[in-house]
């Protein structure tokens, strides 16, 4: 059976990027095109595009660290776009068997994390406004990220005495802090912690050099100091 090939225009539409971005990725080896019979036209295997677009953590990490381009289908410039994509993901989850009791909680914590990024960076984005929001329901993974102020700088506006990223992230997940912009859905990251603790959902969350890892049967909430300094926030939800 002959494999399906996409033209460069079709591949650009599939990934949500420009033709020039695809040409640049081909030239630097990030996403290599096929040129048939020694010609100059670029073609892409459907499977290569699927694999490329599925590496969510890599795209999100490279974007928040170095501003590296990623498929535009994962970019939510505004909270309205984010919520529209969240509704689309909710509908997709509702169609999958085995998620009848869990899908609403997955949507809830995804919404809390995404809304948290928009609410606490409103009018204060250091450079690129908006968030990365990607998911692969077959692999049961959701990734969100932003290039915002980060938890420590945000909380220091009302708690200037906070000494570190670890202390700030711990406070964000465990305390009600007056003076912050209101979370739209519930209690922000505090609600996320409560849901993940009680449900078969794993969470990785990092901001600055602070990391939260809630995984497996031991869901004890801990904030540890990581090995790298992350700007903004990065979250991975697995279920």
From TrEMBL:
GO MF term set: DNA binding
Pfam families assigned to the protein according to its UniProt record, in alphabetical order: HTH_17
Residue ranges occupied by any HTH merR-type domain in the UniProt entry: 5-53
GO biological process: regulation of DNA-templated transcription
Protein name per the record: HTH merR-type domain-containing protein
Native source organism of the sequence: Candidatus Giovannonibacteria bacterium RIFCSPHIGHO2_02_43_13
């Amino acid at each position: 059976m002959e494999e399906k090939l996409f033209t460069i225009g079709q591949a650009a539409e599939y990934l949500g990027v420009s033709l020039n971005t695809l040409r640049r990725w081909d030239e630097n080896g990030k996403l290599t095109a096929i040129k048939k019979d020694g010609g100059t036209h670029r073609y892409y295997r459907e499977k290569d595009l699927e694999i490329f677009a599925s590496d969510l953590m890599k795209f999100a990490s490279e974007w928040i660290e170095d501003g590296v381009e990623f498929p535009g289908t994962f970019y939510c410039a505004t909270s309205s776009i984010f919520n529209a994509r969240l509704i689309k993901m909710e509908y997709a989850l509702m169609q999958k068997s085995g998620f009848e009791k869990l899908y609403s909680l997955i949507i809830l914590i995804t919404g809390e994390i995404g809304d948290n990024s928009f609410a606490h960076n409103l009018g204060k984005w250091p450079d690129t406004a908006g968030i990365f929001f990607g998911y692969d329901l077959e692999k049961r993974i959701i990734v969100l990220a932003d290039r915002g102020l980060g938890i420590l700088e945000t909380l220091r506006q009302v708690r200037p005495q906070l000494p570190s990223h670890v202390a700030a992230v711990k406070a964000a997940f465990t305390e009600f802090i007056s003076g912050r912009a209101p979370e739209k859905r519930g209690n922000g990251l505090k609600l996320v912690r409560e849901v993940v603790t009680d449900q078969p959902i794993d969470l990785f969350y990092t901001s600055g050099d602070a990391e939260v890892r809630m995984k497996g049967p031991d869901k004890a909430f801990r904030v540890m100091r990581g090995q790298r300094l992350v700007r903004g926030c990065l979250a991975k939800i697995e279920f």
